[in-house]
Amino acid sequence: MNKFELNILQITDTHIFADPAGRLGGMDTSASFLKVLDLVLNSPVNFDLVLVTGDLAAESEEGAYHWLIGQLAALNTTVACLPGNHDVATRMEPIVNTAGWQYCGDIVTTQWQVILLDSAVPGAAYGALRESELLRLERCLSAHAGMPTIVVLHHNPVPMDSRWIDTMTLRNAAAFWSVVDQHAHVRCVVWGHVHQNYDSYRNGVRLLATPSTCVQFEARSRDFALAPLAPGFRHLRLSGDGELSTHVVRLAKNHRNA
Ligand SMILES: [Fe+2]
After folding, report:
1. If 198 and its partner were Cys, which of 84, 140, 153, 209 is the partner (CB 3.0–4.6 Å)?
2. How big, in percent rounded to 5, are the helix, strand and coil portions of the chain?
3. Which CATH number applies to 5-250: 3.40.710.10, 3.60.21.10, 3.30.70.3040, 2.30.29.30?
4. Distance (Å) from CA 4 to ligand 1 centroid
5. pLDDT digits (tens, 9 = 90+) for 12-27
6. Is 215 exposed, middle or buried (0-12, 13-18, 19+ CB in 10 A)?
7. What is the 8-class DSSP label of residue 179?
8. Domain ranges, ordered by start, for the chain
9. Residue 69 neighbours by CB under 8 Å, 6+ apart
10. Is 186 within 8 Å of 180 (Cβ atoms)?
């Protein structure tokens, strides 16, 4: 019997400020993150891998990355991350590398592959995959043909049916899907950026977006609007037979923001 199981924690859009007085939509993002981390630490799951899927820092300050690295050390497990539109990749990458985190690249276990893509465009809120990233995606997928795979990025590669969010999607999503569509072993594509839970399918591929650890955006809203939903994280459980189960865990409704 195949008892392989991989438990992945997705933490996203932490928007940490170096200045403790920093607020996003009135929220103390560090305090909110710490409450989510506490929820993770008190869960019965021992996570094998943490994915931090972009917008780690609110203003890409070095102090914000160092603070986050220090806090996530409490999980004592492998951390892999990728940049979002609020991160400056050239600042973020050396800091997380020094801390021993994986930056983009891919992770290959005996049963599953996880591919992390850099969709950030310097100075832009929207995303795009450089030709080199599309080629790397193709290379990784071809190298492990048939192995169940999760592809991770910051920007949404499908519209969220939300006018303002859909001005900053993955611009070359067609090029992304033209690669993915040629590899039937891609089980799931997961992203951050949109600060909301989303769970759908495209051609049999599970599509997941995950709540931020701070403010939540109203789903399917025409204009910018915050949703009165609690911050949270996603748990992905991968089994040896290629099955994936997942759920979002949020703070209790009565939590306080600061
Ligand atoms: Fe973002």
Report:
1. 209
2. 25, 30, 50
3. 3.60.21.10
4. 33
5. 999 999 999 999 999 9
6. buried
7. H
8. 5-250
9. 95, 96, 99, 101
10. yes
Enter the tokens of residue 172.
């070359």
| Å from CA of 99 to ligand 1 middle | 23
Number of H-type helices and E-type strands within the chain: 5, 14
First to last CA, the chain: 48
Ion ligand 1 nearby residues (CB, 5 A): 55, 84-85, 193
- Rounded to the nearest angstrom, the distance between the alpha carbon of 84 and the centre of ligand 1 is 5
Distance 168 CA to ligand 1 centre (A): 8
pLDDT at 19: 94
CA separation for the pair 15, 215 (Å, rounded): 9
* CA separation for the pair 157, 89 (Å, rounded): 20
pTM of the model: 0.96
Q: How far is the CA of 14 from the centre of ligand 1 (A)?
A: 10
**Ligand 1 midpoint to CA 86 (Å):** 6
Residues paired with 68 in a beta bridge: none
